């Protein structure tokens, strides 16, 4: 491709709303342009990268035995009503009406459509298993679209769905997809980890997220320093053993003290000259299971995902000020477990506190010397807190948890019969009995994967594409196109490289060298060939890898061969 002909508008500066490096560089490199919040045009350079990711995904999915299909983006509401999700999916589901006032939505995911498709055709266990996937545009009306392609409203996803006659077979396919995802992200040149993820109401141990390690990631991952335990912090478990050990202090009588305006753990512990570990935090939650109180030690935080799971709740929110007042007779900040009318769920950490400080359920007052069992009753103890760095690993004996940031690029999930039961998708087993299909689903964010690659591969000047995702393999720069010898040599190399099957971008613009080199750095093509009249007189051109400092001179006759070698070596090291 000739730069002079290509629609490749590079920019010196990034737009002010671009917070993360991948978003800034994608805009500056002329890969994407915003149309509306979370909705983008992919320009030619951007689309080339998207296609590279898609092709890797497609090749590996096919190799794993999955078959590509294509489902509509506009989905009739009836299907979503059948699964029960029409009412619970919330505002992320963009609902629309056609000219006959019939309800539709823009597909944010396709369990309903595929279950409907398969239930109409599959009759017997003999036709199972099958794994069908598509690479397609999704729409989710995200509350906070941001970071460019990383969290868009419209985005491209590979979504696969498998159907099975037995649990064992579904689990085998889960492993097959897990291994396939590892190959895909390895081929993309990403540093990633597969972590245990929250399974929501379905439960079970078959859900992993594939996380690209990056400081800008929106997710936190807990990972053991010794064994291979790794989990999304939403799910990461705390080690329970040893927590039952109480302090040796003698229990003292309950006392109420005045704490005017002291609401936070910090304020209260400073005011009372104690430590956060002596405080019990009381949080009031509203949920579909009613109003409940959750307790955690002052130095920890409640993990709402764990609390939700404990309550078996569909939804859960911190209660508003009005509810807090109604339940505690006090403004928020002074809630405590003593005399509370709601059910109380306590984290195991509470078992370690003796003579605790809590809110008094009265404005500007706290209680001291509060002791569980003696002064209040806990409905149930459980693992309800967020893990913190340094926590003991829940799986091995002496490992400690470390916390990393990550970008979720893929998710594999065993669904079981959630959709097949709701939508009556069944098959006849070997004994001729009708059974619901057992399902799995497997997603990869295509644009997010490209963005995650930039988060891991860039420097202060621009992108450093790994060969596998690079929009072109070679960036050819004739320094001065007005010089006939330079241009002729460049044209010659250009043709030779194309004939050798390489993707080449030739910067044939009549621009200053500085501008061309800057653009080359921003765009980040792995191999740069520079043709200047000085080196040309010695029949040589300059070869520089984008991820290395030093350049070398290559004989004109050897260019195609050297480029092929570099491309292969680059592949090995990236
Ligand atoms: P998140 O927690 O980041 O919102 P999710 O759990 O909702 O993601 P899934 O429903 O599992 O995501 O979707 C599968 C994949 O699609 C994700 O792993 C991610 O790579 C991608 N994805 C999801 N939402 C978006 C989005 N808003 N923009 C870009 N990619 C997305
Ligand atoms: Mg989401």
Detail the poorly predicted runs. Answer: none
How does the overall form come out from the CA principal axes? globular
Rg is 29 Å
Give the CATH architecture of the largest domain.
2-Layer Sandwich
Q: Can you identify the CATH superfamily of the largest domain?
A: Bira Bifunctional Protein, Domain 2
Fraction in beta strands: 25-35%
Bound molecules: adenosine-5'-triphosphate, magnesium ion
CATH topology of the largest domain: BirA Bifunctional Protein, domain 2
Largest sheet: 9 strands, mixed
Distance between the ends: 25 Å
What average pLDDT do the residues reach? 94
What would you note in describing this structure?
The protein is an alpha+beta fold and 574 residues long. It folds into three domains: 9-237 and 403-454, Bira Bifunctional Protein, Domain 2 (BirA Bifunctional Protein, domain 2); 241-382, YbaK protein, CATH 3.90.960; 472-573, Anticodon-binding domain (Rossmann fold, 3-Layer(aba) Sandwich). The protein has 15 helices and 31 strands. Strands 3, 7, 8, 9, 10, 11, 12, 21 and 24 form a nine-stranded mixed β-sheet that branches. Strand 1 and strand 2 form a beta hairpin. Helix 1 (21-28) packs across helix 11, helix 2 (44-63) runs antiparallel to helix 6 and helix 2 crosses helix 11. Residues 109, 140, 142, 151-152, 155, 157, 408-411, 443, 445, 447-448 line the site of adenosine-5'-triphosphate. Residues 109, 140, 142, 151-152, 155, 157, 408-411, 443, 445, 447-448 line the site of adenosine-5'-triphosphate (ATP).
